[in-house]
Structure formats: structure tokens, C-alpha cells
Design goal:
about 140 residues; single chain; globular; three-stranded parallel sheet
Length: about 140
């Protein structure tokens, strides 16, 4: 990201991971700096490669269990499916221009689109407070 910011205007669009865990707490200052430089920001990994939906978390990712439980609690508290929470969290970020998601079929895409809504500021703040300490586990390449 530092290289992008120092690119002297050669880069005008970036795609970065962003989700409930790799969130404003982790990426907020970079998002702000990129937007100040006029860089268009696209995000991916809204569902963290499907990790938010897994019944059993692999042993090497067990450090994320408390955070996943927190997401489940927030989801229940606000009567939102985890998929709605994850997608809408990204879509409601003013510093993000586009959100890319992966789907298995058209029905899944339509289901995601039906769940698009505005999230209230209190809920956004609740998610922004999540601070995964071991950032290495947020990168699927390390799984």
C-alpha cells in the first residue's frame, strides 16, 4: 500500500481484501490515504473465502474462533444473516468504491442482492471494534 501511495499518480485503482475481520480497524488509515490521493478502491474477500459460514474451523485457524463467535452474536443481536452482515458491512463503507464477491450460482447472487441494506452507525462501530491480533491468519494464502 505504501508503494501505491508513493506511485506519483501512476496507480488510480486498487483491489484489497476487506471484511468483518480485515476491517476498518486493520485498513481504515490506508483506505483514507488512498481516497485522499484519488485512488479508486475495490475490495474482495467480503466473506473471507467462506470462513464466516464454516461449521468447523480448521485447527490452524482456531485463533479466530472467539471472533467468529462475536460475529455470530452481532448477527443475532441485529437480526441479520452473517452473509448480510458481511456484505453490507463492506457496501456501507464510504471509502470503498466497489465490492467484489464470489458466488457459486445465479440464485446465490440473487440472494445476496436481496439482502443489501443500509446498516446503522452503531452496528458499523460494533464491527469496527473487532481487532484480530494475529493478522497472518487473515490471509488465505497462509491457510
Amino acid at each position: 500500500i505504501e508503494e501505491v501511495l508513493n506511485s506519483f499518480g501512476f496507480i488510480d485503482l486498487v483491489q484489497i481484501p476487506f471484511n468483518l475481520f480485515d476491517n476498518v480497524n486493520q485498513r481504515g488509515r490506508w483506505l483514507k490515504k488512498m481516497k485522499e490521493k484519488g485512488i479508486e478502491v475495490h475490495t474482495r474477500s467480503a466473506f473471507l473465502q467462506g470462513l464466516f459460514f464454516k461449521k468447523n474451523i480448521p485447527e490452524n485457524l482456531s485463533v479466530l474462533n472467539p471472533y467468529i463467535e462475536l460475529i455470530k452474536d452481532i448477527s443475532k443481536k441485529h437480526s441479520l444473516a452473517i452473509s448480510e452482515l458481511a456484505l453490507n458491512y463492506c457496501l456501507n463503507q464510504p471509502l470503498i468504491d466497489k465490492v467484489l464477491i464470489g458466488v457459486d450460482n445465479a440464485a446465490q447472487l440473487n440472494e445476496n442482492l436481496k439482502g443489501v441494506k443500509k446498516l446503522d452507525a452503531k452496528l458499523m462501530d460494533e464491527i469496527n471494534e473487532i481487532n484480530v491480533k494475529n493478522r497472518k491468519v487473515l490471509n488465505p494464502a497462509n491457510w
